[in-house]
Write a structure and sequence with these properties.
By secondary structure, the chain is an alpha/beta fold. The protein is built from four helices and eight strands. It has a five-stranded mixed β-sheet with strand order 2-8-7-4-5. Strands 1-3-6 form a three-stranded mixed β-sheet, with no helix packed on it. About 9% of the residues have low confidence. It comes from Castanea mollissima.
Length: 206
């Protein structure tokens, strides 16, 4: 079972590689095909043909396909073709880089515009790897900390200043409470008593 799965996976990978290796198929002239009513040069200039691609010519029985040289292409000369094709459908592989020239061999058709120049480019190579980018060098110069100046030993140490004491305000005279009336009366009675005792003492002396 494991061997079967491995075989199926290998076939799937192989099919993918074959699909990638196969070139694109181009129907010459697009929807109208190989015909006098098609602007074949405009169609060809809008395509990018690579080695491995295929040209597919589709045409009616009154047309054919001739591959010719550059001079015969320019002069629409069909008497000395490199290759000639007929049958309504022709598949031509683009197996090498360079320019190839095709015309219709039916009299008068080439001069009516039934001709095409195909410029085949080399297979596109993967873009070269860009060199590993180095991190940008910082143009900012790092600041070196400046050492703090040494304190002089001869300078006297600063003593903390003593905070002067604020004297508490003396009690105001108006804030003193007057003697109560009972104390005042007691002093008055004492004075009267002392006066009576003094008078009686004097009377006994006489």
């Amino acid at each position: 079972m494991a061997m079967l799965r491995s075989t199926l996976m290998s076939l799937a990978v192989l099919a993918m590689l074959i699909n990638l290796a196969m070139g694109a198929n181009y129907t010459v002239g697009g929807a109208n095909g190989w015909d006098t009513s098609t602007d074949l040069q405009t169609w060809a200039s809008s395509q990018s043909f690579l080695v491995g691609d295929n040209l597919i010519f589709q045409y009616s029985p009154n047309h054919d396909v001739l591959e010719v040289s550059k001079s015969d292409y320019d002069s629409c000369q069909a008497s000395n073709p490199i290759q000639s094709y007929s049958g309504g459908t022709t598949n031509i592989p683009l197996s090498s880089q360079g320019k190839r020239y095709f015309i219709c061999g039916t009299s008068g058709h080439c001069s009516q515009g039934m001709k095409v120049q195909i410029d085949t480019l080399a297979t596109s190579a993967p873009p070269p790897e860009s060199p590993s980018s180095k991190p940008p060098t910082s143009s900012v110069t790092p600041l070196v900390p400046t050492p703090a100046p040494e304190s002089r030993s001869s300078s006297p140490a600063q003593t903390p200043k003593s905070t002067p004491r604020v004297p508490s305000p003396a009690p105001s005279a108006t804030s003193a409470k007057p003697p109560s009336s009972s104390a005042h009366k007691g002093g008055f009675l004492v004075n009267i008593t002392m006066g009576i005792i003094f008078v009686m003492t004097m009377l006994r002396a006489y």
